[in-house]
Specification:
By secondary structure, the chain is of the alpha+beta class. The chain has two domains: 65-150, 2-Layer Sandwich (Ribosomal Protein L30, Chain: A), CATH 3.30.1390; 236-597, Beta-lactamase (3-Layer(aba) Sandwich), CATH 3.40.710.10. It has 25 helices and 23 strands. The strands form seven sheets. Strands 2, 3, 4, 5, 10, 18 and 19 form a seven-stranded mixed β-sheet that branches. Helix 17 (368-378) crosses helix 20 (424-430). The chain is elongated, with a radius of gyration of 33 Å. The N and C termini lie far apart (113 Å).
Length: 600
């Protein structure tokens, strides 16, 4: 027994020794070989050049300015002559630089563990550097590297579409190796949505280096994949014209082909994206945040508004989907309805009523009572379900980040949101696009395209991405052809028949335009009010939003134009003249085919 124990101990001893010998002689060899390789080889990444963004005619909307960055060697003591000499030379050469800021940046990044040059100036323009380069390149503690800076030639006109780039943060650096090396990333708009494409792919160079980290031989080199450009459907000339046309008003205008291609999308007012490229100042940021017109908000996908009467065509189609025969009968409008024994009046916009009203006239004259009565027969759940299939209260799928969904309410939504039951009166006001209803202007534009063609299109701003053309995405929806035709005739009447709510502004255009006005209230009207005040008599922020959504030509739809004027009052009188001017511009610039001219 004693000998067996000694043998076991002996065998364990040698097992440990052999394992240790393997680790030291073989396994550790791989570790030290890798360590030695790191000491004699250096891998440097080569930054890709960010792709450009152009409009449909090739005009640059986002480009790269050529320049240089300046970095100072590490481990120079803060009060040492070497550091101050370099800083002072830079200040004398480029008077606009901030000495205090450069020293602060240097101190923040200098440490015993950092052996890389510290960037103290992000960008000096090419023209400024050329005269100074021969002198500065001789400074042994200064490193000059080629650099690019994003620039947006059209500034505020396309800010909500193109977006901007900015310095990346730690979270963004961890998620993307290219962002980590480049130090910049798309923060909003197309710059953010297509960041992966625009930023390209890193290249690298592996060099053999001496003990002092001096390169003596290039062992391997891979060039970056860059200049991945994007061409848009946007016409910047049209975009600029619409922006300037808004004048004293605020709001949104969208011009879209019926296949979903966005020709213009204006959110007014806007801001200059160039302010953000190098980091926006506190003063400029506060000015943007405190502006009551909300220039920083992309209103065509982040603004949610009651759709008002612009939803009535969709309501009628939702009724017919839920109950196929419900539109066969007309309704009588006496100027209001009541529910049960309640004395509360749900009023039509016409104080005196419209009398007997069928579908076409209900669209033309925007009779509220017609939709009140039909909605009570169908119910909110069936209405909401169908409206969502028409693209309302759901994301459109546009190629922009963080699109808002809006609200098309039903019983379940209210129960979840407020833990309250649904009331019939809420169905009534939802039927004319009020109450809880909230949509984005982009949803209204998309849904208008559906009314024109029976196809629900995904809106696309980009036309060609890195050489690949973006294909239209269309979903066909079947409707009762008779009801759809009646709705289209009603929209024709709105713009082309005397008494239509947009007749005055839309009836004398070179092509036949059809559409629907809408007035979405932002404050309720007390029951005691017998005669409503005119919109112009109300305080500005109490005035209704003005909608006008249209398509043209009537017989061969090609273009959708949707406009919302915030606190504009009536769609026909406020949005109408602006929409008419947009159609005239499109006609003059050849956006309508010869076939569409003959449809007048």
């Amino acid at each position: 027994m004693k000998y067996k124990f000694i043998i076991v101990i002996f065998m364990l001893f040698w097992a440990v020794m052999i394992t240790r010998l393997y680790h030291v002689s073989i396994k550790s060899n791989f570790y030290y070989e890798g360590l030695a390789k790191e000491n004699i080889e250096r891998k440097q990444f080569i930054k890709p050049i960010r792709g450009e963004i152009t409009d449909t005619h090739g005009k640059l909307l986002a480009m790269n300015q050529i320049g240089f960055s300046l970095s100072i060697a590490p481990h120079l003591k803060m009060k040492a002559k070497a550091l101050n000499d370099v800083i002072n030379i830079l200040i004398n050469t480029f008077p606009g630089l901030d000495k205090t800021m450069m020293l602060k940046v240097y101190k923040k990044h200098d440490s015993a563990y950092n052996h890389k040059y510290i960037k103290v100036v992000d960008f000096i323009h090419y023209s400024e550097m050329m005269g100074a380069y021969p002198k500065l390149s001789l400074l042994k503690n200064l490193k000059i590297e080629a650099e690019t800076k994003r620039y947006y030639p059209y500034g505020k006109y396309a800010a909500h579409i193109v977006g901007y780039t900015g310095r990346s943060n730690q979270k963004e650096n961890k998620k993307d190796s290219v962002v980590n090396e480049v130090g910049k990333v798309g923060k909003s708009g197309l710059e953010r949505y297509y960041n992966k494409v625009l930023q390209g792919e890193l290249g690298y160079e592996i060099s053999k280096v001496t003990a002092t980290n001096k390169a003596i031989e290039v062992l391997e080199k891979k060039l970056p994949k860059d200049n991945k450009n994007i061409e848009l459907n946007i016409d910047i000339g049209l975009q600029k014209m619409i922006y300037e046309r808004f004048g004293k008003h605020t709001g949104v205008a969208i011009v879209m082909r019926t296949n979903g291609e966005i020709l213009a999308a204006v959110s007014y007012p806007s801001y200059d994206p160039n302010l953000f490229v190098g980091g926006i100042s506190i003063k400029n940021w506060k000015a943007l945040q405190s502006d009551l017109a909300h220039p920083f908000t992309n209103k065509f996908i982040h603004g949610t508004y009651p759709p008002g009467s612009s939803i009535k065509m969709g309501m009628a189609l939702a009724f017919s989907k839920a109950q196929p025969s419900v539109l066969d009968t007309s309704e009588h409008c006496a100027g209001y309805i009541t529910l049960g024994h309640s004395k509360h009046k749900f009023r039509c916009w016409s104080r005196w009523g419209h009398g007997k009203v069928g579908l076409r006239r209900a669209i033309r004259e925007s009779c509220d009572v017609y939709f009140y009565n039909k909605s009570l027969k169908v119910g909110i759940d069936a209405i909401a379900k169908n409206l969502r299939t028409f693209g309302l209260g759901v994301k459109t799928g546009i190629d922009l980040p963080r699109e808002y969904r809006g609200v098309i309410p039903d019983k379940a939504w209210k129960r979840k949101r407020f833990n309250q039951p649904w009331y019939k009166g809420e169905t009534v006001i939802s039927s004319i696009g009020q109450g809880f209803d909230l949509v984005t202007p982009m949803q209204i534009a998309r849904y208008t395209g559906l009314l024109a063609t029976s196809n629900l299109a995904v809106p696309h701003i980009a036309k060609i991405i890195d050489g690949k053309r973006v294909k239209p995405e269309l979903k066909h929806i079947d409707f009762n052809p008779y009801y759809l035709d009646e709705i289209r005739k009603g929209m024709y009447d709105v713009c082309n028949v005397r008494g239509g709510t947009a007749f005055k502004t839309m009836s004398h255009l070179p092509i036949v335009v059809v559409g629907k006005t809408g007035t979405s209230q932002v404050t309720s009207i007390p029951q005691s009010t017998k005669k409503r005040l005119k919109e112009s008599e109300l305080a500005y922020f109490h005035r209704s939003h003005a909608w006008l959504t249209t398509y043209a030509p009537y017989k061969n739809p090609e273009i959708v134009i949707t406009m919302l004027v915030e606190h504009g009052g009536h769609g026909g009188s406020t949005a109408g003249p602006m929409v008419a001017d947009i159609y005239k511009w499109l006609y003059t610039h050849g956006y309508f085919t010869k076939e569409s001219h003959s449809s007048h």
